[in-house]
Amino acid sequence: xxxxxxxxxxxxxxxxxxxxxxxxxxxxxxxxxxxxxxxxxxxxxxxxxxxxxxxxxxxxxxxxxxxxxxxxxxxxxxxxxxxxxxxxxxxxxxxxxxxxxxxxxxxxxxxxxxxxxxxxxxxxxxxxxxxxxxxxxxxxxxxxxxxxxxxxxxxxxxxxxxxxxxxxxxxxxxxxxxxxxxxxxxxxxxxxxxxxxxxxxxxxxxxxxxxxxxxxxxxxxxxxxxxxxxxxxxxxxxxxxxxxxxxxxxxxxxxxxxxxxxxxxxxxxxxxxxxxxxxxxxxxxxxxxxxxxxxxxxxxxxxxxxxxxxxxxxxxxxxxxxxxxxxxxxxxxxxxxxxxxxxxxxxxxxxxxxxxxxxxx
Length: 361
Ligand code: PLP
Hints:
Layout: H1 2-5, H2 17-37, E1 44-47, H3 50-64, E2 71-75, H4 80-93, E3 96-100, H5 110-116, E4 121-125, H6 139-149, E5 152-156, E6 176-180, E7 191-195, H7 210-213, H8 221-234, H9 242-253, E8 261-263, E9 274-279, H10 284-293, H11 313-317, H12 322-325, E10 328-332, H13 339-359
Bound molecules: pyridoxal-5'-phosphate.
Protein backbone atom coordinates (compact mmCIF):
# COMPACT_ATOMS: atom_id res chain seq x y z
CA UNK A 1 0.00 0.00 0.00
CA UNK A 2 2.77 2.46 0.91
CA UNK A 3 4.25 2.92 -2.61
CA UNK A 4 0.76 3.84 -3.84
CA UNK A 5 0.61 6.68 -1.30
CA UNK A 6 4.07 7.90 -2.04
CA UNK A 7 6.20 6.82 -5.02
CA UNK A 8 3.38 6.05 -7.45
CA UNK A 9 0.98 8.85 -6.60
CA UNK A 10 -0.64 9.03 -10.07
CA UNK A 11 -4.33 9.18 -10.85
CA UNK A 12 -5.33 6.29 -13.16
CA UNK A 13 -7.49 8.67 -15.23
CA UNK A 14 -4.55 10.98 -16.09
CA UNK A 15 -3.10 10.56 -19.56
CA UNK A 16 0.53 11.36 -18.66
CA UNK A 17 3.07 8.67 -17.85
CA UNK A 18 2.56 8.84 -14.06
CA UNK A 19 -1.18 8.40 -14.57
CA UNK A 20 -0.60 5.56 -17.02
CA UNK A 21 1.51 3.76 -14.42
CA UNK A 22 -1.37 4.06 -11.94
CA UNK A 23 -3.81 2.84 -14.63
CA UNK A 24 -1.58 -0.16 -15.27
CA UNK A 25 -1.63 -0.96 -11.54
CA UNK A 26 -5.43 -0.62 -11.34
CA UNK A 27 -6.01 -2.86 -14.37
CA UNK A 28 -3.56 -5.44 -13.04
CA UNK A 29 -5.33 -5.38 -9.64
CA UNK A 30 -8.68 -6.10 -11.26
CA UNK A 31 -7.12 -8.99 -13.22
CA UNK A 32 -5.65 -10.37 -10.01
CA UNK A 33 -9.02 -10.38 -8.23
CA UNK A 34 -10.63 -11.96 -11.30
CA UNK A 35 -7.96 -14.67 -11.29
CA UNK A 36 -8.84 -15.63 -7.68
CA UNK A 37 -12.59 -15.36 -8.25
CA UNK A 38 -12.35 -17.10 -11.65
CA UNK A 39 -14.45 -14.51 -13.42
CA UNK A 40 -13.95 -11.75 -15.99
CA UNK A 41 -11.99 -8.69 -14.87
CA UNK A 42 -14.89 -6.52 -16.09
CA UNK A 43 -17.11 -8.24 -13.48
CA UNK A 44 -15.07 -6.81 -10.57
CA UNK A 45 -16.03 -3.37 -9.21
CA UNK A 46 -13.83 -1.91 -6.47
CA UNK A 47 -15.78 -0.14 -3.71
CA UNK A 48 -15.18 1.47 -0.32
CA UNK A 49 -16.35 -1.69 1.49
CA UNK A 50 -19.36 -3.82 2.28
CA UNK A 51 -21.95 -1.10 2.77
CA UNK A 52 -21.25 0.46 -0.60
CA UNK A 53 -21.11 -2.90 -2.41
CA UNK A 54 -24.43 -3.92 -0.86
CA UNK A 55 -26.14 -0.58 -1.60
CA UNK A 56 -24.90 -0.65 -5.20
CA UNK A 57 -26.08 -4.25 -5.64
CA UNK A 58 -29.53 -3.68 -4.13
CA UNK A 59 -30.47 -0.12 -5.12
CA UNK A 60 -28.65 -0.29 -8.45
CA UNK A 61 -30.30 -3.56 -9.51
CA UNK A 62 -33.78 -2.65 -8.27
CA UNK A 63 -33.64 0.67 -10.17
CA UNK A 64 -32.30 -1.02 -13.30
CA UNK A 65 -35.04 -3.65 -13.34
CA UNK A 66 -37.98 -1.59 -12.06
CA UNK A 67 -39.82 -1.74 -15.40
CA UNK A 68 -39.79 -5.56 -15.14
CA UNK A 69 -41.22 -5.69 -11.64
CA UNK A 70 -41.25 -4.05 -8.23
CA UNK A 71 -41.12 -7.00 -5.84
CA UNK A 72 -38.00 -7.61 -3.74
CA UNK A 73 -37.14 -10.34 -1.23
CA UNK A 74 -34.71 -10.50 1.68
CA UNK A 75 -34.45 -12.23 5.06
CA UNK A 76 -35.11 -10.98 8.58
CA UNK A 77 -31.52 -11.57 9.74
CA UNK A 78 -29.62 -9.44 7.23
CA UNK A 79 -27.14 -6.75 8.20
CA UNK A 80 -28.61 -3.24 8.36
CA UNK A 81 -26.69 -2.32 5.18
CA UNK A 82 -29.12 -4.66 3.40
CA UNK A 83 -32.27 -4.00 5.43
CA UNK A 84 -31.99 -0.20 5.34
CA UNK A 85 -31.34 -0.21 1.57
CA UNK A 86 -34.52 -2.23 1.01
CA UNK A 87 -36.49 -0.03 3.44
CA UNK A 88 -35.41 3.03 1.45
CA UNK A 89 -36.57 1.46 -1.83
CA UNK A 90 -39.94 0.63 -0.25
CA UNK A 91 -40.49 3.96 1.52
CA UNK A 92 -39.15 6.33 -1.12
CA UNK A 93 -39.35 4.54 -4.45
CA UNK A 94 -42.50 2.43 -4.33
CA UNK A 95 -41.00 -1.07 -4.30
CA UNK A 96 -42.62 -3.95 -2.41
CA UNK A 97 -40.67 -6.16 -0.04
CA UNK A 98 -41.12 -9.65 1.38
CA UNK A 99 -38.96 -10.34 4.44
CA UNK A 100 -38.49 -14.09 4.82
CA UNK A 101 -38.56 -15.57 8.32
CA UNK A 102 -35.79 -17.82 9.67
CA UNK A 103 -35.93 -20.98 11.79
CA UNK A 104 -34.77 -21.14 15.41
CA UNK A 105 -31.18 -21.55 14.17
CA UNK A 106 -31.41 -18.45 11.98
CA UNK A 107 -31.60 -20.19 8.59
CA UNK A 108 -33.81 -19.37 5.62
CA UNK A 109 -35.70 -22.33 4.15
CA UNK A 110 -35.18 -22.49 0.33
CA UNK A 111 -38.80 -23.66 0.03
CA UNK A 112 -39.96 -20.42 1.72
CA UNK A 113 -37.95 -18.48 -0.84
CA UNK A 114 -39.44 -20.45 -3.72
CA UNK A 115 -42.96 -19.82 -2.39
CA UNK A 116 -42.28 -16.09 -1.98
CA UNK A 117 -41.14 -15.49 -5.57
CA UNK A 118 -43.87 -13.75 -7.59
CA UNK A 119 -44.16 -12.94 -11.29
CA UNK A 120 -42.83 -9.44 -10.66
CA UNK A 121 -39.97 -10.38 -8.29
CA UNK A 122 -36.77 -8.83 -9.61
CA UNK A 123 -34.22 -9.21 -6.82
CA UNK A 124 -33.46 -11.44 -3.82
CA UNK A 125 -30.72 -10.69 -1.28
CA UNK A 126 -29.74 -13.23 1.38
CA UNK A 127 -26.46 -13.27 3.27
CA UNK A 128 -23.96 -16.14 3.16
CA UNK A 129 -23.14 -16.06 6.89
CA UNK A 130 -24.55 -14.01 9.73
CA UNK A 131 -22.37 -11.39 11.42
CA UNK A 132 -23.94 -11.78 14.87
CA UNK A 133 -24.30 -15.56 15.15
CA UNK A 134 -21.92 -16.91 12.49
CA UNK A 135 -24.75 -19.14 11.20
CA UNK A 136 -24.17 -20.15 7.57
CA UNK A 137 -27.07 -19.98 5.13
CA UNK A 138 -27.69 -22.59 2.40
CA UNK A 139 -26.72 -19.84 -0.01
CA UNK A 140 -25.93 -21.94 -3.11
CA UNK A 141 -29.35 -23.60 -2.78
CA UNK A 142 -31.06 -20.22 -2.36
CA UNK A 143 -29.19 -18.94 -5.40
CA UNK A 144 -30.28 -21.99 -7.40
CA UNK A 145 -33.92 -21.25 -6.55
CA UNK A 146 -33.49 -17.72 -7.93
CA UNK A 147 -31.68 -18.95 -11.02
CA UNK A 148 -34.50 -21.42 -11.82
CA UNK A 149 -37.00 -18.58 -11.44
CA UNK A 150 -34.96 -16.11 -13.50
CA UNK A 151 -34.61 -13.70 -10.56
CA UNK A 152 -31.41 -11.78 -9.77
CA UNK A 153 -29.69 -12.98 -6.60
CA UNK A 154 -27.34 -10.96 -4.40
CA UNK A 155 -25.48 -12.37 -1.44
CA UNK A 156 -23.76 -10.37 1.29
CA UNK A 157 -20.85 -12.77 1.74
CA UNK A 158 -18.84 -10.30 3.79
CA UNK A 159 -18.51 -12.55 6.84
CA UNK A 160 -18.06 -15.75 4.87
CA UNK A 161 -14.88 -14.89 2.93
CA UNK A 162 -11.63 -15.92 4.55
CA UNK A 163 -13.42 -18.42 6.77
CA UNK A 164 -15.08 -20.96 4.48
CA UNK A 165 -13.37 -22.80 1.60
CA UNK A 166 -13.53 -20.68 -1.54
CA UNK A 167 -13.34 -22.18 -5.01
CA UNK A 168 -14.76 -19.52 -7.27
CA UNK A 169 -17.24 -16.66 -7.18
CA UNK A 170 -19.83 -18.74 -9.05
CA UNK A 171 -20.24 -21.18 -6.15
CA UNK A 172 -22.91 -18.94 -4.58
CA UNK A 173 -25.11 -19.14 -7.72
CA UNK A 174 -25.39 -15.37 -7.39
CA UNK A 175 -25.47 -12.52 -9.90
CA UNK A 176 -24.02 -10.15 -7.31
CA UNK A 177 -21.65 -10.89 -4.42
CA UNK A 178 -20.48 -8.32 -1.83
CA UNK A 179 -17.07 -8.64 -0.19
CA UNK A 180 -15.18 -6.46 2.27
CA UNK A 181 -11.42 -6.42 2.85
CA UNK A 182 -11.30 -5.74 6.58
CA UNK A 183 -13.16 -8.93 7.45
CA UNK A 184 -10.08 -10.94 6.47
CA UNK A 185 -7.17 -8.67 7.38
CA UNK A 186 -7.36 -6.31 4.40
CA UNK A 187 -7.47 -2.53 4.92
CA UNK A 188 -10.60 -0.93 6.37
CA UNK A 189 -12.62 0.87 3.73
CA UNK A 190 -11.78 -1.65 1.00
CA UNK A 191 -14.09 -4.00 -0.83
CA UNK A 192 -15.60 -5.04 -4.11
CA UNK A 193 -18.78 -6.15 -5.77
CA UNK A 194 -18.95 -9.04 -8.19
CA UNK A 195 -21.46 -8.22 -10.93
CA UNK A 196 -22.10 -11.10 -13.31
CA UNK A 197 -22.19 -9.80 -16.86
CA UNK A 198 -24.25 -8.60 -18.62
CA UNK A 199 -25.95 -7.04 -15.56
CA UNK A 200 -25.24 -3.32 -15.26
CA UNK A 201 -26.84 -1.93 -12.06
CA UNK A 202 -27.68 1.75 -12.04
CA UNK A 203 -24.82 3.65 -10.39
CA UNK A 204 -25.12 5.15 -6.92
CA UNK A 205 -22.60 7.89 -7.67
CA UNK A 206 -22.61 10.20 -10.68
CA UNK A 207 -19.55 11.66 -12.28
CA UNK A 208 -16.79 10.07 -14.33
CA UNK A 209 -16.86 6.74 -16.12
CA UNK A 210 -14.70 4.91 -13.58
CA UNK A 211 -15.15 1.19 -12.85
CA UNK A 212 -16.75 0.52 -16.24
CA UNK A 213 -19.43 3.14 -15.55
CA UNK A 214 -20.51 1.37 -12.37
CA UNK A 215 -18.90 3.62 -9.77
CA UNK A 216 -17.89 7.20 -10.48
CA UNK A 217 -14.97 8.67 -8.52
CA UNK A 218 -11.20 8.42 -8.47
CA UNK A 219 -10.13 5.01 -7.25
CA UNK A 220 -8.43 4.54 -3.86
CA UNK A 221 -5.37 2.76 -5.17
CA UNK A 222 -3.62 2.21 -1.84
CA UNK A 223 -6.73 0.56 -0.43
CA UNK A 224 -7.11 -1.53 -3.58
CA UNK A 225 -3.46 -2.61 -3.27
CA UNK A 226 -4.06 -3.94 0.25
CA UNK A 227 -7.37 -5.52 -0.71
CA UNK A 228 -5.80 -7.43 -3.61
CA UNK A 229 -3.08 -8.89 -1.41
CA UNK A 230 -5.64 -9.91 1.24
CA UNK A 231 -7.82 -11.59 -1.41
CA UNK A 232 -4.86 -13.44 -2.92
CA UNK A 233 -3.48 -14.50 0.43
CA UNK A 234 -6.52 -15.29 2.51
CA UNK A 235 -9.49 -16.54 0.46
CA UNK A 236 -8.57 -19.79 -1.25
CA UNK A 237 -6.75 -20.91 1.88
CA UNK A 238 -8.96 -19.30 4.53
CA UNK A 239 -7.00 -17.10 6.91
CA UNK A 240 -9.30 -18.21 9.72
CA UNK A 241 -7.82 -21.68 9.61
CA UNK A 242 -10.27 -24.35 10.75
CA UNK A 243 -7.60 -26.76 11.91
CA UNK A 244 -6.01 -24.21 14.24
CA UNK A 245 -9.26 -22.63 15.48
CA UNK A 246 -11.43 -25.75 15.89
CA UNK A 247 -9.63 -26.96 19.07
CA UNK A 248 -11.01 -23.76 20.69
CA UNK A 249 -14.51 -24.49 19.54
CA UNK A 250 -15.31 -27.30 22.00
CA UNK A 251 -14.29 -25.44 25.19
CA UNK A 252 -16.00 -22.24 24.02
CA UNK A 253 -19.18 -24.10 23.07
CA UNK A 254 -19.18 -25.79 26.48
CA UNK A 255 -19.80 -22.38 28.12
CA UNK A 256 -23.36 -23.07 27.01
CA UNK A 257 -23.66 -25.44 29.99
CA UNK A 258 -23.32 -22.54 32.50
CA UNK A 259 -26.62 -21.55 34.06
CA UNK A 260 -28.45 -18.90 32.05
CA UNK A 261 -25.95 -18.99 29.17
CA UNK A 262 -27.02 -20.11 25.67
CA UNK A 263 -24.82 -20.52 22.60
CA UNK A 264 -26.91 -19.22 19.70
CA UNK A 265 -27.18 -21.34 16.53
CA UNK A 266 -25.43 -24.24 18.24
CA UNK A 267 -27.22 -26.85 16.11
CA UNK A 268 -26.30 -25.41 12.76
CA UNK A 269 -23.21 -24.94 10.64
CA UNK A 270 -21.42 -21.80 11.86
CA UNK A 271 -18.33 -19.81 11.01
CA UNK A 272 -15.32 -21.21 12.84
CA UNK A 273 -14.44 -17.94 14.59
CA UNK A 274 -17.85 -16.60 15.69
CA UNK A 275 -19.64 -17.44 18.96
CA UNK A 276 -22.74 -15.63 20.10
CA UNK A 277 -23.92 -16.14 23.68
CA UNK A 278 -27.15 -15.00 25.25
CA UNK A 279 -27.16 -14.37 29.02
CA UNK A 280 -30.53 -14.64 30.63
CA UNK A 281 -31.43 -11.49 32.59
CA UNK A 282 -28.19 -9.55 31.86
CA UNK A 283 -27.72 -6.73 29.42
CA UNK A 284 -25.11 -6.69 26.65
CA UNK A 285 -23.56 -3.34 27.55
CA UNK A 286 -22.85 -4.28 31.19
CA UNK A 287 -21.29 -7.55 30.03
CA UNK A 288 -19.26 -5.77 27.36
CA UNK A 289 -17.99 -3.19 29.85
CA UNK A 290 -17.08 -5.87 32.36
CA UNK A 291 -15.19 -7.98 29.80
CA UNK A 292 -13.44 -4.82 28.61
CA UNK A 293 -12.35 -3.91 32.15
CA UNK A 294 -10.84 -7.39 32.29
CA UNK A 295 -8.90 -6.73 29.07
CA UNK A 296 -11.14 -8.72 26.73
CA UNK A 297 -12.69 -7.20 23.59
CA UNK A 298 -16.07 -8.70 22.71
CA UNK A 299 -19.07 -7.23 20.90
CA UNK A 300 -22.80 -6.95 21.43
CA UNK A 301 -24.49 -8.09 18.25
CA UNK A 302 -23.11 -6.21 15.30
CA UNK A 303 -20.29 -3.73 15.96
CA UNK A 304 -22.24 -1.02 14.15
CA UNK A 305 -25.00 -1.04 16.76
CA UNK A 306 -22.76 -1.16 19.87
CA UNK A 307 -23.66 1.78 22.01
CA UNK A 308 -27.33 1.38 21.23
CA UNK A 309 -29.47 -0.74 23.48
CA UNK A 310 -31.78 -2.07 20.80
CA UNK A 311 -32.47 -5.79 21.00
CA UNK A 312 -30.74 -7.75 18.23
CA UNK A 313 -33.10 -8.02 15.25
CA UNK A 314 -31.30 -11.27 14.37
CA UNK A 315 -32.17 -12.94 17.67
CA UNK A 316 -35.69 -11.52 17.61
CA UNK A 317 -36.18 -13.12 14.17
CA UNK A 318 -34.93 -16.42 15.60
CA UNK A 319 -37.72 -16.32 18.18
CA UNK A 320 -35.84 -15.03 21.23
CA UNK A 321 -37.65 -12.72 23.63
CA UNK A 322 -36.76 -9.01 23.65
CA UNK A 323 -34.84 -9.39 26.89
CA UNK A 324 -32.77 -12.34 25.56
CA UNK A 325 -32.18 -10.46 22.29
CA UNK A 326 -30.84 -7.61 24.42
CA UNK A 327 -28.40 -9.75 26.34
CA UNK A 328 -25.99 -11.12 23.80
CA UNK A 329 -22.24 -11.06 23.53
CA UNK A 330 -20.37 -12.03 20.39
CA UNK A 331 -16.94 -13.56 20.79
CA UNK A 332 -14.73 -13.61 17.70
CA UNK A 333 -11.42 -15.40 17.29
CA UNK A 334 -8.61 -14.18 15.07
CA UNK A 335 -5.70 -15.83 13.32
CA UNK A 336 -3.46 -14.92 16.26
CA UNK A 337 -5.71 -16.28 19.01
CA UNK A 338 -3.71 -18.59 21.25
CA UNK A 339 -4.49 -21.49 23.55
CA UNK A 340 -3.35 -19.37 26.49
CA UNK A 341 -5.78 -16.56 25.60
CA UNK A 342 -8.64 -19.04 25.35
CA UNK A 343 -7.81 -20.55 28.78
CA UNK A 344 -7.66 -17.03 30.23
CA UNK A 345 -11.04 -16.20 28.67
CA UNK A 346 -12.61 -19.46 29.89
CA UNK A 347 -11.49 -18.84 33.45
CA UNK A 348 -12.66 -15.21 33.39
CA UNK A 349 -16.00 -15.92 31.76
CA UNK A 350 -17.92 -17.22 34.84
CA UNK A 351 -16.33 -14.53 37.02
CA UNK A 352 -17.47 -11.73 34.70
CA UNK A 353 -20.96 -13.22 34.46
CA UNK A 354 -21.17 -13.46 38.26
CA UNK A 355 -19.88 -9.87 38.64
CA UNK A 356 -22.52 -8.53 36.27
CA UNK A 357 -25.22 -10.70 37.82
CA UNK A 358 -24.21 -9.45 41.29
CA UNK A 359 -24.27 -5.81 40.24
CA UNK A 360 -27.61 -6.09 38.51
CA UNK A 361 -29.47 -7.57 41.51
N1 PLP B 1 -22.63 -7.00 6.05
C1 PLP B 1 -22.17 -7.76 7.06
C2 PLP B 1 -22.61 -9.19 7.14
C3 PLP B 1 -21.29 -7.22 8.01
O1 PLP B 1 -20.85 -7.97 9.00
C4 PLP B 1 -20.93 -5.85 7.89
C5 PLP B 1 -20.06 -5.22 8.91
O2 PLP B 1 -19.77 -5.71 9.94
C6 PLP B 1 -21.44 -5.09 6.83
C7 PLP B 1 -22.28 -5.70 5.94
C8 PLP B 1 -21.07 -3.63 6.67
O3 PLP B 1 -19.70 -3.52 6.53
P1 PLP B 1 -18.92 -2.12 6.46
O4 PLP B 1 -19.35 -1.36 7.68
O5 PLP B 1 -17.52 -2.51 6.50
O6 PLP B 1 -19.30 -1.44 5.22
